Structure formats: structure tokens, C-alpha cells
Amino acid sequence: MMETRALSPSLGVAVSGVEDPFDDTLISRCLEALKWRGVLLVRGLDLDDAGQLAFSRKLGEVVALRGREIFTVSLDPSKNPMAEYLKGTFDWHLDGTSDEVPIKATTLTARHVAMVGGGTEFASTYAAYENLSEANRRRYDGLRVVHSFEAAQRLVKPDPSEKELAGWRSVPTREMSLVWERRDGRRSLVIGATADHIVGMDPAESRALLDELLEWSTQPRFCYTHDWAVGDLVMWDNTGILHRALPYDASSQRTLHRTTIVGEEAFA
């Protein structure tokens, strides 16, 4: 019998007792969890790549990354040629901030886990916004922020070569509302590692404000930390849930397989 429980007060749902991962009732609950709780965990679902793709396609259209619908998350360059860039995932971020329409959701299945560390931490910017004081809501409403791939990569490598810098800057920047009001009226904060600066604000003041908001949004009451076990499936709302990988040894065999679900609503 399928059961659900909250992962934390502010976000997340764990589903147990799953007999058929493609059952319409389960998919409906997944989509509801994605919207209202941000993160969904099914322990030990143990889907292979074909099963993960089939499950993902019931949630929405799957987009290929680097030509592959299944993207390997690993710091081993033999498994993932983009391993160096994945070091940026140790900082809080949203995926797809360089796109007009951000990624709707991501699914990850654990193939190998790290012996030490390697968990994934999530933070709800919906809950963070909802708990702001009225004075701070007025302070942030109307502000616009520029996101860039360069901003995220500089956190990993603050002194890049000219070639690296040119590569980072080949990814377009995007300006959007700091507070994103959705079509359904819900609001979230578009922040994280790619948030470069607030439009029209003094650079030092801009940086202080973005750092302040990130610190507010990632306090424990808005967070959930997932410790991976082989076979776990986790999916989350990429538009309002910040996430980051927790440190682990680069020589670890930690390997996750990812699918990416196409977004439905453009940034404001």
C-alpha cells in the first residue's frame, strides 16, 4: 500500500510502498508533490535507465543534455567529460537560469554512492519568501537580477584563464525578477550561485543583498538533506528549490543518473 510522509516541515515528501512506478495514481501524487512540496523521494525504487526515462516521460517532456537523455553525474572524467564543471554543483544553485524557460524538474537515481559525504541538500525559496517580513518583501519586490554561468564558475575558480573565461561568457546571461510571481500567484526567489548582480544597484550593496537572501533561504528550517542509498529516486522542482551536492572525495565512485524535464513557464 502506497504511503507518504513529509521529509521536513517546509518541503519534501517520501513515498513508500510503491508496487508499480508507472501507476497513474503515483504519477499524480508525484506531480502534486513537485508543485506543493518541491522534493519527492522514493527509496530503493531501483529503476534502470529505461525505467527512469519511462517514469520521467510520464511527468513531462524529457530534454537531452549534451545529446543524452540520461546524463551521468560523476566527478570521474571517464564517466562525464563535464566533470570539472560539476564542481560548481557544490554551491547552492538553480538549474536553467540561462534559459528563457527554466527546467521544470530533475530526477536523479543513485547508481553508486560515496562512502563519506556526497548527499544532496535542498532549500525551498517558496518557503523562504513566504516567511519574509512585509518590510523585506517590499524591499525585494520589483528588483531584477542578472544571472550568469560565469558567476557560478568563479566561485569554483576565481582566477580563470582567458580560454576558460571565454567559454563561460559564451553562455548567455539572463535578467529576471528577483521575486518570481508565477501564473498561479505563488512567489519564489530566483537566487543562487548564478545570481551575478542586482540591476542598477551598487556592486557591493548588490552582493551583500544577494548573500543575505541566500543565507536566509538556506537556513535549516527551509532545508532537507538527502543521504543517498543505491536505487533511490529523487525528483525536485528546479524553478523554486535550490540544491547543492555536499562535499565528497573526487576519487569516489559516486554516480547518479539524471533526467531533465522541460519547463512550462518563462522567467518573469
TrEMBL record:
It comes from Actinomadura vinacea. Signal peptide: none annotated. It comes from the Bacteria. This is TauD/TfdA family dioxygenase. The lineage of its organism: Bacteria, Bacillati, Actinomycetota, Actinomycetes, Streptosporangiales. GO terms for molecular function: dioxygenase activity. The keyword Lipid biosynthesis does not apply. Residues 5-260 form the TauD/TfdA-like domain. Its cofactor is Fe(2+). Gene3D superfamilies: Clavaminate synthase-like. InterPro entries: TauD-like_sf (IPR042098), TauD/TfdA-like (IPR003819), TfdA_dioxygenase (IPR051178). Belongs to the TfdA dioxygenase family. Keywords: Dioxygenase, Iron, Metal-binding, Oxidoreductase.
